Amino acid sequence: MAMAESSNALSLSWVFGFADRCPVTNLCDANRAAIFYASAHTGIIYDLNSKSQQLLQGHCNPITCTCASADRRLVATSDRGADSMLVVWDSYSTQPVKTIATPHPHGVHAMDMSPDGKYLVTLSEPAPEGEAGGPQVIAVWDCSPAGSSDTPIYSAMVTSPSGEAAELQISVRLDPSDPTQIVTNGASVVIFWSFAEGGLTYYSPPLSSHDFKQSIGTLTKSTFLPGSTKAVTATADGDCVLWDVLDSGPAEYTTERRAAKIVRLHTGAVTNILTVGKYLVSGGADGHVRFYDFEFRIIAWFEDLDAGAISSISFAVPTSSGKAAKAAADAAASGVLSCPDFVVGTSNSLIVSCRPSMFDELMTERKRGTLLVQGQDAPVHGLAAHPSLTRFAVTGKAGLLQLWDYAEKRLLLMRMFDRLSGHTLAFSPSGKFLAIGFTSGLLKVLVGMTLEEVATFKAAAGCITAAAFSHDSTYLATSDTDNCVGVYRLGNPGDEPTAKKEWIFVGKYRGHYKPITGLQFGEGSDGSARLFSCGEDRALVEYDLARSSVQGGIQLRNTSKIEQTGVPTGCVYVPAGAQDAEPHVVTANDQYKLRVIAPGPKSIQRTVVGPTYGGPLTRMLLLSPGESPQPGAPRYLAYATHDKVVGLVQMPLDGNPNKTMGLIAHPGEVSDLVASWDGQWLLTAGGHDRSIHMWNVRPAALVATAKAGGSGIAPFVSQLDGGAQGTVYEEIVDHFYYAQLRAQGEDSTEPRKITGKVPMSELGNMMRSLGFYPSGREIDEMTSEAKAVAQAAGRPADSFTFDEFLALYVNHRPILGVSKEQIADAFAVLATDGSGVLSREALVRVLNSYDEALGADDLSKCLQLLVGSERPEVAIPERVDAKVFAETLLGFQDYGAEAAA
């Protein structure tokens, strides 16, 4: 789980970002200067001296809760969602010392750890909206080495006295003086718990505005005052409610308390409250940190941090040396604030280091603390890597544009675009320009080094979804949610040779009637720029930039349908190389296939199985071979799926699964993917997790995996059920030899010749005999591919071998079978009245009329094979819907059972 040197093809090297919903923990003590915080699904120990990160990995969901023991030796992380996990880490060795799988069905909503690290208390996450779930659960876990990881030592449902589910509790805190005492609070209810007598008992004291003759705001956080029976709860109105034991109740082990008084702490919401030494410390939405004594007299205030609303506060571990103790006593005697240094996390995704002596500073600049970590304060969506420097740009929903040096891990520049949300970024290959597209349809071209504005265009009515520059940096293209491609050119206005070059809008073209999923520039054989786009309408469009002009608009070179049933989800242009004699476009579709398409006639040269780790590929890019690549060295394709997964594919594409790898890069959406100029690093943006992850690329590990997986046909055989010893493989062998006999004539009396080759004309029959029923177009594509393979092997293109057929079958067969949802969708489209029901005549008319239409003879043969009757009026019911079609005609016996389930 802990980050270490890895032989993986991709390994996480650095995390840019900070999850402000999780508290930052100050790990500073006499031996080290470090902080701990979370970003996405990774815990981070950041060394303040060496400026290095140690990454704690293992969660699949975003980390939502963290806490630590008093000596900071132990830190705990937990998440919410499916397959949730709670991990207790040794912060020195960065190794997990306790792992609790699924502590609650939907994860942990809040948690706290006792000062000695023995006990951990958790509040369960409620079930997602729309799912059934019982009351919230509070659980106490024994985290000592001898404790059980699997079950809590105490647990109870959070219910009202009537037994119904109580208000959701959002905060939990253990009493540092007596860890058997717990306080939780929801928006309006506070509950005191105790497990001192061998079980969880609780008491929820009443809290009414009538008792204090003032309104009581929403409750936010609670904590105990150490060394006493008192506790406090902060509110969104800036107040603090003081709780104490009932006069008539025993002080020891009691949970019965009453609200004694309300005190104003801040002018706005109190977002965090805790104790340190003899101080009560509060952080507010106003960005202020204030220190009070336990009588609520203000001692010190830090109101010039200017870092945003305070989300967490954490103090360094107090030193126990005699000199330090004497210094603290002297400071207290002189009236100076006496406490350890502390760090604050803010809602602006900042972590700031503060010293107590800042309170006595006179100059405002010295009261602001030291910025330790800076992240994005809103979802991030656009990334761009500089083509020759170790820099990347990132933008997001808040309109903040940042320029980072990823080698030095240093923020270089930033710019805020008010009332705009950034969506996509692109550096020009020269590095001179940086294009940024906004969700409002605005497009800005900036200077890549300074972020100064060069040009602004109102490019679309909707969102700019992608931007790309041509190889010579003279063209800029965008796609948008209006399904249009816009083209801009760097040139002389009015064709005046002496005029300064500027960006000119050439025009827009709606080449797709469904969303555009890919936009790529390529380079022609004469050095000219070529522009391609693919969309969910199954079209690949090439634009003729040479004939396009401001006066004449955008011209098309050609449009071709590249899919029949699949939906393109992305594309990448691959220039000619040592292993690819001709340039081509690679497209990905929602059926987990990659297609190699030759520019020009748009012929589909090859179809292979793509990575199937986490969904269809949505982003692809060709990694740079580096400064001095070896002759004939393989090229690599980096990819990302819409959710979670990032990986590599070794080229050329052939469907070998051992040449691909993938891993969980983010716990949710992967909003963008870029590569460094030298191909050594990948950068991924996590969308709503507000993080950017930097991955070290080690292609040698992928090469080793591919070599270990075998060569030739072995990787394809392994993809069959049962492998070489399975019944599927044996069936393919039998069918292949039978096809040779059939080609020679089943009734022939002449001596048989087993040539090891089957005529191309038998390819479709071979596929159908194995339960894969390709369309006529798909058979034509497979035949064309098989002929190219035969020619590459130096054979006549009239037959195929067993190995060639097996690779073709594995690559072309569907990854996912036909589902009842697909059948229902088809009937919903065919039934023009929206009922999803067709008459017999309408169904026959559709089968006879559209696309690869079935003639009367073909339809009769199909019906004879399916139901035993050639006559439609006998074989087909008068009214047909998806269920009747699947059960009566196709014979899906489990269709009804699945639908009922």
Structure overview:
With 901 residues, the chain is mainly beta. Among the domains are: 18-160, YVTN repeat-like/Quinoprotein amine dehydrogenase (Methylamine Dehydrogenase, Chain H); 386-458, Thrombin, subunit H (Beta Barrel), CATH 2.40.10; 714-812, EF-hand (Recoverin, domain 1, Orthogonal Bundle), CATH 1.10.238; 820-900, EF-hand (Recoverin, domain 1, Orthogonal Bundle), CATH 1.10.238. The chain contains 14 helices and 60 strands. Strand 34 and strand 35 (433-438) form a beta hairpin. The chain starts with 9 loop residues before the first strand and ends with a helix. Mean pLDDT is 89; it is low at 1-5 and 897-901. Keywords: Cell projection, Repeat, WD repeat. Residues 818-853 form the EF-hand domain. InterPro entries: EF-hand-dom_pair, EF_hand_dom, WD40/YVTN_repeat-like_dom_sf, WD40_repeat_CS, WD40_repeat_dom_sf, WD40_rpt, WD_repeat_EMAP. WD repeats lie at residues 663-705.
Task: Outline the fold blueprint.
Blueprint: E1 10-16, E2 25-26, E3 34-39, E4 42-47, E5 52-56, E6 63-68, E7 74-79, E8 85-90, E9 95-101, E10 108-113, E11 119-124, E12 137-142, E13 154-157, E14 171-174, E15 181-185, E16 190-194, E17 201-203, H1 209-212, E18 219-224, E19 231-235, E20 239-245, E21 257-264, E22 270-276, E23 279-284, E24 289-292, E25 298-302, E26 310-315, H2 322-333, E27 342-346, E28 350-354, E29 370-374, E30 380-385, E31 391-396, E32 400-405, E33 410-416, E34 422-427, E35 433-438, E36 442-447, E37 453-458, E38 464-469, E39 475-480, E40 485-491, E41 502-509, E42 516-523, E43 529-535, E44 539-549, E45 553-561, E46 568-574, E47 584-589, E48 593-597, E49 604-609, E50 617-622, E51 636-641, E52 643-650, E53 660-669, E54 672-675, E55 681-685, E56 692-697, H3 699-708, H4 714-717, H5 727-744, E57 757-759, H6 763-769, H7 776-792, E58 799-801, H8 802-812, H9 820-830, E59 838-839, H10 840-849, H11 856-867, H12 872-875, E60 879-880, H13 882-889, H14 895-900
Antiparallel strand pairs: 1-56, 2-3, 3-4, 4-5, 6-7, 7-8, 8-9, 10-11, 11-12, 12-13, 14-15, 15-16, 16-17, 18-19, 19-20, 20-21, 22-23, 23-24, 24-25, 26-27, 27-28, 28-29, 30-31, 31-32, 32-33, 34-35, 35-36, 36-37, 38-39, 39-40, 40-41, 42-43, 43-44, 44-45, 46-47, 47-48, 48-49, 50-51, 51-52, 52-53, ...
Helix pairs in contact: 7-8, 9-13
